[in-house]
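Lab meeting notes turned into a lecture example. A postdoc, R.K., suggested we walk through two folding results consecutively so the class can see how the record format repeats. The first protein's sequence and C-alpha cells come next.
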Amino acid sequence: MNKIRKIYYDEEDENKESTENQLFNIKLFYYKVLDEQWRPQTREFPSLTLVNTYLYLYGGRGNEIFNQLCVLDFQTWQWTNIQNIPQLSEGRYGHTANTFIN
C-alpha cells in the first residue's frame, strides 16, 4: 500500500484535512462478459435510437458503409439483425434518427 504525503481537498478551506501517513485500501471490481452471440461489426458514425428497452443502431462506416438495422434488447443483452427492409437499400453514416408516433 502507498502512503500519501499530503492532500488538501480545498485550498480555501480553513480546516484543511491532511492524509499524512494514512493508508488507503482500494477495492477494484471488474468483469468480462463471455458470450459467443452475434453482434454488429465495429463502426463509426451510426445513429443510435433508444425506444423503451431497445437500442436501434442503423448505418455507420467501417469496412463499408452499412445499411444494417440492428436492435439491442437491454433485458436480454442480445443483438438482433433486422433484415429484408426495402427502405434500407442505401447505407448511411453521420446521420440522425428519431422516433415518431403514428
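The second example is placed directly after the first for contrast:
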Amino acid sequence: MSDPNAQPPVDPAKGGSVPPAGDGATPPPAAPQQPPAGAYPPPPAGGYAPPPPAAGSYPPPPAGAPQYQQPYAAAQPMSPSDEKLWSTLIHIGGIFFGFIPPLIGYLVLKDRGPFIKAHTLTALNFQLTMLIALVVGSILTIVVVGLFIIIAVYVVVIVFSIIAAIKANKGELYSYPLTIQFIKA
C-alpha cells in the first residue's frame, strides 16, 4: 500500500527538481537545555543571591553529611504483668534452648525492672551451671558414667525451670538450687 499523502517522485532528467535534504517532516535536533558540566547554575529568580549567614552562626552542613543523632532514651519500666510474663518465658526458654534465652533476656531486659532482672540473672546462672555439668557429663561418657550425668542434668533443668516459671508467674522470686553465681547483680 502506498501513502495517500506522499508526493510522486520527480525525475530530474525531465526538468523536475529534487527537493533539498532536510525539507522533510523531521525538525532539526534542539539545542541542549542544561548547562555543560562544571558551569555555574543560573542565578535564582529575581537575580539576587541568598543572604550570607549571620555572624557567629555556622553554615548548614553539605548534603549527605552525617547528622547528629540524639541519644536513646532510657528504657521504660515494665508493668508487673509484663515482668511476670517475660520472666516465665525466659525460664521456659531455658528448657529448650539452654542459656541463650536467659542471656538475651538479661542483656535486653535487665534495666526494665528489678523483678525481671532478678529472674533473668538467676536463670542465666543456673543455665550456665547446667552447661558445665553437661560438658563434664559429655567428657565422662567415655567411662559410661557420663550418660547418667547427662540424663540427670536434663531432668534437673526441666524440673527446676518449671518450678521457677510457676514462681515467676505468681510474682515470687525464686533461687535455683545447685547454682554457681557466675554473674552477680
